Amino acid sequence: MSTVLDVDARGMKHCETTALGVLLRHQGLELSEAMLFGLGSGLSFVYWDSRAVGFPFLGGRVKPFELTRNLAAALELELRVQETASPRKAWQNVVFAIDEGQPVGLQLDSYHLDYFGSKVHFGGHMVAMYGYDDHAALLVDTDQQGGAVSTSLASLAAARAARGPMTARNRSFTLTVPFPPPDPRDRIVPAITACADAFLTPPIANLGYRGIEKAAKLVPTWLRRTDDPRHDLPQAALLMERAGTGGALFRNLYRDFLAEALWLRDDTALRTGHRLYAQAAARWTEVAALIARAGTTGEERHLTQAGTTLGDIARIEHEAMRTLSRLGDAASR
Asked: What Cα–Cα distance (Å) separates residue 153 from each residue in 117, 139, 318?
């Protein structure tokens, strides 16, 4: 038995926006990846270090699935989420939706997927599923991972049931677009100000601009943090620039979102935010290169320079978000 939906199986740069794009395009709502990311208030920062991750992790977005929830709320989409500890029920949830003509979003651990070249555990990975037969599932992943791909049913079950950091219990979800469909232009300003407010007032020092300031202090110590700098530091740099994030810790995506917003609405605050995030994106790429260089050379001076650059980035992004938080005020026009 098999079912295959006719979807636009287009991979994007980031996994969650890729899955969202597939689900929304199937219902006729076409938005750019940058617009999906921005309307979902997806930009953030986290400095995460724990025994579970082994080596410090720098993240440039909100936590997995928060972007989806934000986007659904912003566009008044019907978001149906199912989670279960039962592998049998988890499969039934997915099959039912696909047999009814709806592609399904899945959160899983990419380590177990057959087509994934990099065997690193990441429990916050997202894909869209649009078909299956008795042996394999048809998925849409990022462009980097191949776009339209397939994996065995056994590997999919293992990926969905995995436990660990950022995992969910066999989470699957569908989106339904209301009629008439929403006008995204009306949601841009609230999405930007919500993102800015969260970035400027993080609940703990590991998040938002405070997290970047923390990274500026701790990254220079990373050679003392690892027994295998030739692996750990280039791996950290790779995750920052190439692991489905759009590069530069998502700052390129947010810069492009602000450019689209500017095209729709000329505003002084938007122009300033766009200019500053263009600067921040370039500086993040510099940081990744310095971290990788420190790993291959063993020279701490590269990490010291990365820390200085991170301090500059924290100031740039703080200024950008302070400006964007005032978007819509009379003074910004």
From this structure: 18, 11, 45
pLDDT tens per residue, range 50-61: 777 778 989 999
Instruction: Determine which helix (DSSP H) or strand (DSSP E) holds 93, and give its type and residue range.
Output: helix 87-99
Measured N-to-C along each axis, helices 251-264 and 188-200 cross at an angle, to the nearest 10 degrees, of 140
Give tens-digit pLDDT for 74-105.
999 999 999 999 999 999 999 999 999 999 99
Least confident piece of the model among 7-11, 51-55, 126-130, 136-140:
51-55
Q: Is the pTM of this model over 0.85?
A: yes
Ramachandran category for residue 192: left, alpha or beta (phi over 0 → left; psi -120 to 50 → alpha): alpha
For the chain, the first-to-last Cα distance in angstroms comes to 59
d(CA 92, CA 57): 35
Residues near 173 by Cβ (< 8 Å), separated by ≥ 6?
A: 68, 79, 80, 81, 82, 104, 105, 106, 107
Which of helix, strand or coil describes residue 206? Answer: coil
Distance CA 32, CA 166 (A): 26
Work out the burial of residue 321: count CB atoms within 10 Å of its CB; fewer than 13 is exposed, 13-18 middle, 19 or more buried: buried
Tokens of 325: 């938080």
Q: What mean pLDDT is predicted for residues 190-206?
A: 97
Structure tokens of 36?
Answer: 């999906």
Q: How many residues make up the chain in this entry?
A: 333
- Residue 333's pLDDT is 47
- Indicate the pairing of strand 78-82 with strand 148-152: unpaired
Kind and range of the H or E run holding 3: strand 3-4
User: What residues contact 212, with CB distance under 8 A and at least 6 apart?
Assistant: 45, 47, 310, 313, 314, 317
Query: Which tokens hold the place of 25?
Result: 């395009």
Cα separation, 312 vs 280, in Å, equals 9
Return the closest-CA partner of residue 277 out of 238, 333, 237, 322: 322
Query: Which residues make Cβ contacts (< 8 Å) with residue 220, sequence separation at least 6?
Result: 300, 303, 304, 306, 307
